[in-house]
Amino acid sequence: MNPRLDLLQPYPFERLRQLFNGVEAPADRSPIRLSIGEPQHATPAFIQEALVMNLRGLSAYPTTAGGDGLRETIAHWLTQRYDLAPIDATHEVLPVSGSREALFAFAQAVVDGSRRDPLVVCPNPFYQIYEGAALLAGAQPVFLNQLPEYDFRLDMDSLSDEQWSRVQLMYVCSPGNPTGKVLQLEDWKQIFERADRHGFVIAADECYSEIYFDEGAPPLGALQAARRLGRNAYERLVVFSSLSKRSNVPGLRSGFVAGDRQVLKQFLLYRTYHGCAMSVPIQAASMAAWRDESHVRENRTLYRKKFAALEPILGPALATRLPDAGFYFWAKTPCDDREFARALFADTHVTVLPGQFLSRVSAGVNPGEGFVRIALVAPLDECIEAAERIAGFVSRRFGQQA
Q: Where is the signal peptide (predicted)?
């Protein structure tokens, strides 16, 4: 077996399962799971219909690059969403089987193991796929802390020049999971300058880009930032997006990558051997989803209602603050986050995810310590019930006013 598999750490939800071993939740309370970022809003009927109406496409092998119609639909969406010059659908867009699969595969295609001690930069806290992808590609992950005292900005100066010189790939997540931080133009300028200086590729994970509060101020995207800074060829930049959160279709496994055509040309070659091609019915359903914005606006409205209802309840208990975007509260805990999650489950049957499970020690700090991630994915009434249980628990256990 590949010895690098031994480097992988247990996934956060396996660690959560182990944390809860031997814990009995109260049987008289219904379980409410706010630990996993799995959208639970209804999948729009028109997406389901598009899938069913194209089932005959199962009789054909799909192409790795996807059909012209899907690539053109995605290219049009990108130009409209981010106010870009026309995207070349043939060379600058590639459909993928969900952003998770593509984020992992990308490192395998990008990292050159023949070079000395390659590094892959990850935000911290982070999506654990980044770390696993780096390790299995033969690189060492290094982490940039995102701390509340610095408004969750990436600590770019925590790596030495020698370390930056060995970086081959940098994962960036905006809006951030779990902090909800949206990078601004100045943040992107610093990242692009580092990439130019050291020659590494940027993988921008934007799967939460369509969950935000102000319809008139959507989050800045990486391609959008590049264009505003005159980087019209998107040098060494590839963005990853997905329908899972935007359209409530996590089981569809549909997303795309877009950006630097030279990087995508090589990534397509890799994927030809990797064997991940999107089936024709999934492509048809994806085109229907990308072409419609009304269901996405309705989806955002549902999340806004949840944040508006929960913030007054959780704010006094856990000093929560509204994220820039996304559907998580990154909430400060009054004790060790693992202890908090375990005791909360035992007392209330509500599940949240300890922040330590989403981060690593870097520069002597684990930025997830003392936080829990609360995913507002359940229906509104369940989210309100969960918030009231959490606030009551904090008040009883720690004497804090809820």
A: none
Question: pLDDT value at position 400?
Answer: 58
Looking at the 3D structure of the chain, how many domains does it have?
Answer: 2
Please say whether the beta carbons of 195 and 226 come within 8 A. Answer: no
Quick one: tokens of 301? 């409205």
Mean pLDDT score of the chain? 96
The predicted model gives 5-24 an average pLDDT of 96
Which residue has tokens 């999948």?
A: 43
Model pTM score:
0.96
Domain extent at residue 331: 3-42+295-398
Q: Give the tokens for residue 72.
A: 């053109």
- 239 with 373, same domain: the answer is no
Single out the residue in 273, 292, 311 at which a domain terminates. Answer: 292
Residues 265 and 344 in one domain: no
Model confidence pLDDT, tens digit, residues 214-228? 999 999 999 999 999
The count of residues in the chain is 402
Among 292, 319, 345, which residue terminates a domain? 292
User: Buried (b) or exposed (e) across 97-134, using 16+ Cβ within 10 A?
Assistant: bbbbbbbbbbbebbbeeeeeebbbbbbbbbbbbbbbbb
At 175-216, the pLDDT tens digits run 999 999 999 999 999 999 999 999 999 999 999 999 999 999
